[in-house]
Each structure stands twice: as structure tokens, then as C-alpha cells.
Amino acid sequence: MKIYGREIADQIFENLKKRVEKLKKKNIIPHLHIITLTTDSSSESYVGQKKKKGEEMGAKITVENLDPDTTTEQLLEKIEKLNLDKSVHGIIVQRPFSPQIDEQKIANSINPEKDVDGFHPESKFDPPISESVLKILEQVLKLKKENINFSDWLKSQEIAVIGRGVTAGIPIIKTLQKNRIEPSVVTSKSENKTEILTNSDIIICAVGKSNTLERGDIKNGAILVGVGMFKGGDGKFHSDYEEDEIKDTASFYTPTPRGVGPINVAMLLSNLIKAAENFFG
Fold first, then answer.
1. Which of 11, 36, 115, 141 has the most crowded Cβ, counting Cβ within 10 A?
2. Are the beta carbons of 200 and 175 closer than 8 angstroms?
């Protein structure tokens, strides 16, 4: 069964719109400033969705496109100005970064109270991508209609995460660990990949490459959450697995697009609203 993220995201957005209205009565407009240095197609798509959905719910979304050759020092200067700007509640430097950028320095430079992406070590916010995965799995449990607490159910599952990327794999792994769940991690260097995956009840794919996960890698009834995505030769976005190939083996799976993406945007904007609410008490 396909799990579409749009319905889940729409419920979140309805709640966020009400909170924005309350802020506006106090003359506060939540403001997200996004800096981009990349022409990566999937990133551009996400930025477009953030701007569109943010503005629809009444927030201000500023997208600043910098030269890909911008240096770390120049970017740090830009971030410091935004840190001091009281009209800005959330700051994002859209990944992937240009090769010359010191990723850790940039992550650490953003005010933790404005770090709505959750990359700063002391960020006040959970990473939207990992919260999105949990929302998907909560929906799966509702559809399964099992009389069990979500946290207990999650702990009872064998969970595998494919990929250890900074933007998805690592945040998801850390969030699971925070919830006292130790997932199996599969990378390109894993020698026991097939053994891990065929014994997993839940597989979270966070790579962004074709055929990362194939039908022979999963057991019957497995739950698949596709986080990684890439643009194929047909000009369309695809998941780490081919949906037609796994749909009769997996019990639940997210499609690409319209899977995790809409919820990721919703959870990011949820962090923005929290930042605006917290900043002004």
C-alpha cells in the first residue's frame, strides 16, 4: 500500500496556519531566510516547495541565491548578519554545498534558536527529515490497526537505514537512537547488506541513487520509507527503489514524489513557527 505524505502534511499545515494567524495578531510574521549555492535539481525542487507552502500559510520566505564560488568566510559573514536580524526567525543554507565550503563551520555558525533544519549540535529543533519519517511510520501503524503504543511498536521492529549522509541518513539514525532504537546501518561498504535488509521489518532508504534497494533485498511484508531521490533520464524524480518492482512485496511504501517530501516541508515550517513563537515569547 502506498503511503502518501500529502494528506499528513495537509493536516500539519492547517494547524500551522492557525498559529501564524495568532502571531500576526501580535504583528509577528514568521520569516525564513534560505541561502542557496547549488543548482542541484532535487534541492531546487525542495526550495520551491518550502517557499510555496510557507507563503501559503502566511509566512515570509526569502530565497537568496549566492554564487557557487562563494567562500566559507563570505558565507559566515552572511549568516552572522542573519543571526543578528531580529526579523529573521529561521536560517537555512540549502544543501548540497559547493566543494570549497566547510560544512561543519557553516552548521555551527547558525544561531541554534534559528537553526530550523536541526544541523547545529545545540539546535533547538529536531531535523525535519527524521520527524517526517516518524510521521510516516505513525500513519502505517494507524493503518495496521494494531492495538499498541507507537513507541513500543517501533522498538519491536527490526529497522535498517540505508545511507549515512549528512542531510538524511545521519539525522534519521540519531533520532532513532534518541528514541532508544538502534537501527542497523547499511552503506556501500557493508558486506552483510542482504542479510541485514532481508531481516528488516522497516527499511529507510536515504541515498538518492537508482536501484539502491531491489526486490530481492526485502522480505515479504516489509515497510519501505523512501527518503533519497534523484532525477532520472526521463526528467522525473525517482526513489532509491522502483515502485513497480517492490509494490507486491512491501506491505507499505512511500512513493516519489508525494511521499516523504511534503511532510519534510511541513515539519521544517513547523520548526519555523516554533522559532517565531519562542523568539518573542
1. 115
2. no
Residue found by looking up cell 493503518 in the block: 143
How far is the C-alpha of 90 from the C-alpha of 51, rounded, in Å?
A: 13
CA distance 234 to 253: 22
What mean pLDDT is reported for the chain?
94
| Per-residue pLDDT reduced to its tens digit, 10-25 | 999 999 999 999 999 9
Contact indicator for 47, 34 with CB cutoff of 8 Å = yes
In order of 159, 199, 279, the CA distances from 156 in angstroms are 9, 13, 38
Instruction: Cell numbers for 229, please give them.
Output: 531521490
> What per-residue confidence (pLDDT) applies to 184?
97
For residue 164, the SS3 value is coil
Distance CA 281, CA 265 (A): 24
Sheet holding 252-253, edge to edge: 184-186, 159-162, 202-205, 223-226, 252-253
What are phi and psi for residue 123, nearest 5 degrees? -55, 145
Closest C-alpha to 228, from 279, 172, 277: 172
Chain centre to alpha carbon of residue 10? 16
Kindly report the pTM of this predicted structure. Answer: 0.93
Please give the grid coordinates belonging to residue 173. Answer: 539514525
d(CA 14, CA 29): 17
Amino acid, res. 51: K
State which amino acid sits at residue 47. V
